[in-house]
């Protein structure tokens, strides 16, 4: 890996970019350099001979990130670069960290780092998205890791890849914030309503809750004692569902429909600019049929296939604006009456919310 480092200290990607967010949508820039530097810095138990070999690579990568810090406008790359510089104990990490709060969005009552390209909610602009994207989870995790790795954290207490990174960040936070003994008393007051909660070592993992009889204009929360606890006040409102513009377009065509053979053609294309990241297509298989995987060998765009329960899963490096079509055969393995239509969907692997559904039904499946 060190041999691939460029003279300016960067780590360019010579191959295909699967996780486009890591590269800011391209195969160059500080994203991959920060990622590689984090890997080198976190593996500090290597043999002395290896450490001496990569020490120069670390210094060059740090220098590259410092020189390009002012050019980073993407929040995801900024969060990743901040963590890399924090691990390196470089003074420029302070500058990078102070730029992160400007990208914060309140989402579901929690503060998260969020990318600038958000879905637009026309009818209810004050509402946040109901769930965080993979990119948002990673950004928040990198910010938390930066906070946990900095000396400020200690002094202040004296705050599939996204899942792993989030768990790593939370683990680091828990390690520094954990106490062997704690005792917290929380009082909640609202419009004559009052409720006391006691949190101790014996019930720390038990969720305690209370329903307010009416929606108050103000809720007062008072906490005493020592320890770390989370208090959440939630208001649930029924709102009109927002219609979002899909990022994919998909067509499903039943080319052949006989008693023992089905031939299905699916075509998907990317509607946004550029190309998608790694894409996944799930094809439901009607009851009593099984996909003939030999018919997929001619589809060079498919990089991997899996069978999960009653569906076929196809993986693509990317899907562009030109339709990617796949033709497959399904052969009958048993007689099943009144078989129902099956679903076909395509989505971005790193953004599962960006998906589109279609369905397919066959006449021969509905046996009397």
UniProtKB/TrEMBL annotation:
- Enumerate the SMART domains for this protein: A2M_recep
Q: Where is this region: Disordered?
A: 1-25
User: What Pfam families does the database record attribute to this sequence?
Assistant: A2M_recep (PF07677), TED_complement (PF07678)
GO cellular component labels: extracellular space
InterPro entries in the record: A-macroglobulin_rcpt-bd, A-macroglobulin_rcpt-bd_sf, A2M/Complement_sys, Alpha-macroglobulin_TED, Terpenoid_cyclase/PrenylTrfase
All residue ranges annotated as the Alpha-macroglobulin receptor-binding domain in the record: 276-360
Task: Write the record's keywords in alphabetical order, separated by commas.
Answer: Signal, Thioester bond
Could you tell me which Gene3D superfamilies the record lists for this protein?
1.50.10.20, Alpha-macroglobulin, receptor-binding domain
Give the protein's recorded name: Alpha-macroglobulin receptor-binding domain-containing protein
